[in-house]
Amino acid sequence: MEFKRLKYFIAVAEELHFGRAAARLGMAQPPLSRQIAALEDQLGVKLFDRSRNQVRLTDAGEVLLDRARDILTDLDSAYREATLIGKGGAGRLRIAFVGSATHGPLPTLIKSFRSHYPDVDLSLSSMNNAELERALIQRDIDIAVARPHLAAAEELRSARLFHEPLILALPDGSPHARTTSPIALRDLAAETFVLYPRRPRPSFADFILHVCAEEGFSPQEQVFAQDYQTAISLVSVGVGLAMVPESVSHSPRSGVTYRSYEGHNPGTSLTAHARLDNRKPQVVNFFTLLQQFTRRAS
């Protein structure tokens, strides 16, 4: 059955007048009458009682009117939903990120994406860089936000979200947390450094060790944590100090003092990645919004 004939039928059923229904549909009356007759022939029933110069719905017509309205409503809804998903305004977007990214601009970017595309189902999770790369390759996620980037970045679509300096996270009880003098990184060689992640390597931990090496030392005591949250917890109870992105200082932590330092500071970045063959419109919209976001920030 043609959906066009259902629309014709509904117009006649609601107007109960072929002339008015034809005018409403923007067509001549004879073609409309032929379409209704063809529909009745197709169904093998009379839908209208045309006796006594009056058009009335038969019992079969009453039933079809209710069903036809539901069918066309569902069809219109399906068209709208398909169009919305096709343009990236609905559907699902899976984003995973390193734990420290929750203190930088990523939450603001995600909030902006939610505002622009409220019907997109956002799935958010925290992973380390190795887990991010594995999940991206296996198509378990759509977007990975890594620090500073993934090893396979050349084979991925990538965009830098943010670059920031490194700072020190010190236990409140540390003499370095109480002094007002500038802290020289090379003077911390005898301190315990809390590094993360413990595995896999190389990782952000090796990046920090390289920064220390540029200042001519390797920390005498090294304690490894599996993730940023564990590392900062160890700092808060006095296990040692950590070098962290500056943005984490925007979220105060009991037992932790954040200080800048003097010495080699290459900073650290957050980079968003997606597979080159992932052309989901939700992914395209995210990267477009990210580029607009970074342009405004700069």
From TrEMBL:
Gene3D superfamilies noted in UniProt: Periplasmic binding protein-like II (3.40.190.10), Winged helix-like DNA-binding domain superfamily/Winged helix DNA-binding domain (1.10.10.10)
Signal peptide feature range: none
Single GO molecular function: DNA binding
InterPro entries, alphabetized: LysR_HTH_N (IPR000847), LysR_subst-bd (IPR005119), WH-like_DNA-bd_sf (IPR036388), WH_DNA-bd_sf (IPR036390)
GO CC, alphabetical: protein-DNA complex
Protein keywords: DNA-binding, Transcription, Transcription regulation
Ranges where the HTH lysR-type domain occurs: 1-58
One Pfam family named in its UniProt record: LysR_substrate
Family of the protein in this entry: Belongs to the LysR transcriptional regulatory family.
Protein name: DNA-binding transcriptional regulator, LysR family
Source organism (scientific name): Celeribacter neptunius
